[in-house]
Amino acid sequence: MATAQLPEQRTLTTLHTVVLATEVLSQAGIPRDLLLEGSGIAEADLRTAEKLVTHAQELRVFANALQYYRDPSLGLYLGLRMHVSAYGILGYSMLASRTLRDALQLALAYPDLLGTYFRLALQDHGDEVWLSAEGYRYAPELTVFNTELCLTSLLTVVRDLLGESVRPRRLLLAYRPPLHAHTYAERLGCPVEFGAPTSALCFGPALLDRPLPLADPVSCHNGLQQCQRQSAELSNRGDVLELIRRHLASHLQECRSLDAVARHLHRSSRTLRRHLQQHNTSYQQVLDEVRYDKARQLLKDTDLPIYLIAEQLGYSETASFRHAFQRWSGYSPSLYRG
């Protein structure tokens, strides 16, 4: 049976962040081959605009970068160099948007083109608007790096869009102060609050309604159409597969077979099986992946007993879940929970 894949092993993204990291760090004297080591990305790939990589490959480059650069504030350093032009047609469309709010809402509508690991949102909080980043569930050792990279790159984009070096009112971070915490305020120019309920850039509402200096409705409309096409291409016929995953995630206790899923989705088993074959996978492998995702979340975020977790995942016997989790992760559920 094939090994269940982690979300980062099956999610595709563009190369723009990897290109930025290798470009900036090669200028700092770190060879590109060291940064790409073990990622499966070749140097020639960096010059191929249409090349897609998985989040797992990108995360490996980030881990290498932290290892060789030896500066824990690398996420801040890279994020402040992640200009709006790095996002291709999405960045161009943002520049042509009417207001800053319109531009940010456009970006949030296409998280796959942003390549983000977070669930981004604009949230009204009284006299502030928060551009928040939540839901990170990838390599835990890169949580701080990826949060820094995400929020500082968003700040860089805001500055590019407005054409001036604006400062947030404050920066909220949902983790404890790291050893390099003193560098945050000096690099971002605003107060920083650690241990917050969420991670977010906080702005005054009036800033988001500022008109953009390069606004052009025709260009924005044309860019939006290209964003839609690029997003569809990035999905690469994965819509049905993702539909299966989402359904399984909500119905693990009753979806024991592909026939049952097909009935719920009002499609034929033959159609679903064909889509699975196109992605070189099977119903059992997708079921394992969804169960593995859910199991990791329940083991880490809840105190549910193992037998109840097994029930929620659709196992009639706890032993079957234990054996499956050992096969997926190399650990027993109890050892994984720590």
TrEMBL record:
GO molecular function (one): transcription cis-regulatory region binding
Organism of this sequence: Pseudomonas knackmussii (strain DSM 6978 / CCUG 54928 / LMG 23759 / B13)
UniProt key word Nucleotidyltransferase: no
Recorded GO CC terms: cytosol
Keywords, ordered alphabetically: DNA-binding, Transcription, Transcription regulation
Lineage, opening ranks: Bacteria, Pseudomonadati, Pseudomonadota, Gammaproteobacteria, Pseudomonadales
Record's protein name: AraC family transcriptional regulator
Domain HTH araC/xylS-type: 238-338
SUPFAM superfamilies named among the record's database cross-references: Homeodomain-like
KW ATP-binding (keyword) present: no
